[in-house]
Structure formats: structure tokens, C-alpha cells
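SEVERITY: medium
COMPONENT: batch folding queue
REPORTER: lab tech (J.R.)

DESCRIPTION
The queue accepted two submissions in a row. Attaching both inputs and their returned C-alpha cells so the on-call engineer can compare them side by side.

ATTACHMENT 1
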Amino acid sequence: MYLKRIFSALWRGLKFAAQDTSVTLAVLAISILALPSHADILISPQRAILTDDVRQAVISLHNPGTDPRAYRLSWVERRVTEDGQVLSLKDGENPRSITSMVRFSPRRVIIQPGQTQTVRLEYRPPADLKPGEYRSHLRIGMEPIADKNGNSGGTEVMRGEKEGISFRLDALMSFSVPIFVRHGAGGAEVKISAVEPVINKQDGPGVPALKVTLSRGGEFGAYGRLMVYRQLNASAPVELIGEAGSVALYAEVSGHTRMINLRPDASLTPGSWVRVTYEGVGEERGRVFAEQTFQLGK
């Protein structure tokens, strides 16, 4: 629906200005958080943490496609609200920005098909830096570069014909990778403050789910996945019946609520035991931030 509204707006101006029967459009402002894989680029890792002991990091950008891709890198500032919204901030609005203490290079890359480009980051803390967690986001924005067919080099999201004019709509995607600086002593304190069995009707007619609320304290944020295990009785095996990955608790929020869909065959029968854990991933792999075990009422 979003792309259809964009196209409708562009079409009203295009049909009067078109000089040819074949037109390519480029949408320049589609921005998403970094994903582990995408049709046009593979980004690894999806986040980086710099500390007083680890002052350098590398982000790898891989082009799995058949055409060259061009990207420009720059800092952007984001803030996450308690309800999970990601807000864009203007220059100077982020008191925890790292742009003055972290350098990166290169700032523009052209990646050939099948090739990988590394981006290096270096952390240089100022002498008067106060302890705590700081964060900015590294924006990796696609730039137009003509491919072998003369197209813009963006991601094709729509093509067709209307009123005798054939068109192709390309999106120039951008990706945002959070970069953290953790200075001084500190940590994240996470608790599972509420677990509620519900029926999630957002993904169809309704599937069994758990509504899990996490509470965060401490100086740093946390990043992990929520896991749901079930044991029907004392002699039954423990089963993994639900999982929600990429659950981030940023330092500016005190909590987060996530819906975890359960396996369709994994009914929460009375008397069974359920264990919910928030487990670290990436640099926090192997750490269990919080867990809660309870028995369903008979």
C-alpha cells in the first residue's frame, strides 16, 4: 500500500512530463534497520560495540547480486520510545551521540558483484567522557549507479504499463546499523516483569501466543532473543515452542513488550510448566539476562 501511494503521486506528474514510452523512477527515501541479509546487500555484523578495551570494529558489506552497487556512509541519530517506535533526531538532539569520538572509513564504496567491502571504525574517547552507553547509527545508503541495462541500480519494486507508458519503479534503500560506545564500568539489569497467554489475531485468524514484558535497568542496554519452553509433566521432555529474535532494549528505555507466537500444536494445557528466557546473542551470546518459570493453573 505504501509503494502504491508513492507511485500514484509520482504518476500524476509523470504522465504529463514523459518524453518516452519507457520510464524508470527512483524513490530516494526508503530507510530500514539493518537486516542480516537482503536481496541487494549482506551486512555483518548488524551492530557493533566499542569499549575501553575494544576500540576498533569492522562492518562487512557484501554484494550478492549481478550488478555493481554504490553506497554512501554517514552518521544518523535515532531514539527508541517505550512503545518501540524509532524516531529520527536532528543534529545536536542526541546527548549520547558518538559521532565526535568514533571515526569510520571509507565513506563511499562501490561493491562489484560477489565482492565484499569492509568498513573500519575506531573509537577515541575524550578525556572528560562520563561513564555510560552512547549510540549513533551508521547509515548505509544506496546511490544511483547505472547497471548494464541502463537502469538506476536501485532495487526494483514495481513495473508495468499504464496509459501506454511502460514503467519501472526502483527504490534506493538505506540501512541503519547501531554503533555503541560503552565507557567505564556498568551493565544491564533485565527482568521479565509480566507474562500473559493471549491469542494473537494480527497474523491471521488467531494463534496462541505469550505477551512478555521486559523491564530494564542499569547503565547499558541489552540485546537478545526471547525463548519459550514447555514441559507437559515431570516425565515429559522440555520443548522449545516459541521464539522472538532481535529483541533490543536500548539504554533510553525502561522496558519493552513483545508478542511471541507459539507453535500451532503447542497448546498451553493446564498443569504444564512454561519457562521464558531472555538470552543474549552476538557479543552477549551465552548470557541469560532474565528468566521466569511458572505452572499453568489447572
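ATTACHMENT 2
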Amino acid sequence: MIESIQYIVWHINKTTKYCVDTFIHKLRGTNHKLRDTNLVLIILERIEKKNDLQYSYLMIKFYPDFLPIELSMKKEFHPALNLLEDGISEFTFAGLYLFRNTYHYEVAKLPDRGFIIRGIKNGEKFFFTPCCLPGNEFLTELFKEYRYLKNMSESQCKRERIRLEMAGFYVMEDRDNFDYYYNRQDLAELTGKAYHKKRNLVNAFLNNYHYEQRNLDMTTLNDGFYILDKWREEKGEDGDYYANREALELYNELELKGSIFYVENEPAGLVIGEPLAKARMFAVHFEKGLSKYKGIYQFINQAFAQTLPRTYHYINREQDLGDPGLRQAKMTYRPQGFVKKYRVYQSKPV
């Protein structure tokens, strides 16, 4: 099976404008036996998506002409987002693309520089401008249609807050949306009294189970889907299932990194993320574990931190979204700090 996968991956890497029918014809002419139809279909879709990226480059239009976020926009988005220093977890191309349907994201270019992205949450229209903050007149125009500006960074706030408030706009911290970031070494070592309970759970896991960690690649991809499907079955709800599934399908195109964890030779957990804040930070976008293995989340949290290169000083584990249980869980890992985010309203909300 692995040889068959490697054979297909070789063709994906070598092909440019490659016809899928021709590929299938060649594949049938080989002695490679493919037992996993689902994985083959995913691989074939990747060939088509690669063709789309290479030959269907969709230009982002200028405001007010918005377009839905497409995979082919990555070439325009990525360089600008890659320069951002604050480390806001949403401000990566993968973060925007994977949740484009959740928040109905659409994008346009700003007249001077940067982008404006609009979306909808809980029935309210919002917008954000990752690279620069618009002038007062433009903001006033935008607030005629949108309820608030979302995800203003801390560095933007320091530069622009006085100007905004003098113009009558209302600026507030968006605590439910703060990203938690942790010292990578702290999560990797779990030393000190603060991590006593975490260490006990990890040690119990290590004593009870035989485990293995492998990189996310084409040889482990199908195990990632298995974990995700089992996780949804356990939870009894979708959660971020579809975004996570697409992250697996497009991990190469979106330049995502991750690991698949095995317990007693069975797929048991996954982690997927990407570099952030000029590669000083690593953002964990998705983390899934099967609950039948006690301590699985504490284990994969530490194991993944241990295998990250030391060039990553911090791990961004994203926001708690105002969920009290999730907030408590994130705080027990003793965050180094928060990636603060702010909202801007035309006037103080009632």
C-alpha cells in the first residue's frame, strides 16, 4: 500500500497540467494494487486542486467588489499575512480558507494596501483588516453596513486607539477571542508544581499504553480521517469536523504541519497547525484524541511540543470563545500571555 501511495505522490509532485484520465490509465497499467479507494480519490482531487492553483489564479478585486475566498487566492494573501507579527491565529491563509463557510468570508483589496475581509457571526455582519486600519471616513462608511470591526491587533490598537476614540469610535477588548500562547519549553517539559496533575496524567498514559508519533503525510493521512470520524462519533456533533477534514485533505497546499499519534498500533490522536508571527510561534488549529485512551490530550499536547523545532518559542492554542470550561482548561496550562484582539464599534454598544 505504501509503495502505491508513494507512486501516486511522485506523479503529483512531477505533474503540471496533468489529466486525471491519463493518470488513471497509467495507474491501471502498473502492478501497484490500491486497496483504499477513499485515499485514491483524495489523491486525485489533490491533482485537480494543484492544477487549479497553477492555472486558475483568481485575482482579488478592489473594494467594494467582494469575492468568496478561494484556494487560488493564496498567492496574493500569503505574503502579506506572513509579515504580521502579533500572532493572531485567524490571520493565516489556512485559518481564513478553512473557516470561510463557517463565517461566510469574502474578501476585497483596500485602495491603499492590504485587504478587507467581511463575514457573519450570530447574525451580525463584521469586517476586519489584518494589514492596516482604514481612515476615519472609510470606517464611517463601513459601519453603515457592518456591526463592528473584529480582530484589531494589539499593535494596531497601540498605534490607532487615540485616533479612533477622538473620532468617536468605541474600542474594546474582545476577551473571549484572545489567543492563549504558551512557552514551548514549558509544554514540552511540564516541570514545577503548576504542572503536577498534567505530569501524572501523562505518566499514567505512558505506563498504560504503547504509543508512536508519526508526521502527517500521505502515508498517515487516512489514519487522520479515521481519528476525525471517530471523534465526531464520540462527540455526537460536528463541531469543527468539516474544517478539520479539509485541513487534512489540503495539508500540503495550505502548508500545514502535524502529527498522527498511535496507541497500541491504532490511530488515536492528531495535531495540525502552522507557523505564525514570522515563525516565532506555532499555531495549533486542530487537536483531536479518542477518549477511550485516558490522558490522550495531555500526552499529545506534550509530545507535539517536544517534537517542534526549538526555533518556535511559543505555541498558540487559540481562543476559548467564552466557554467557561475551555477557559479553565487553557488556564491550567499556565499561558505565557495572550494575543489580544479588539473590537471597534461606531459607538458604544447598548
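NOTES FROM REPORTER
Residues 136 and 167 are 7 Å apart (CA to CA).
No errors were logged for either attachment.
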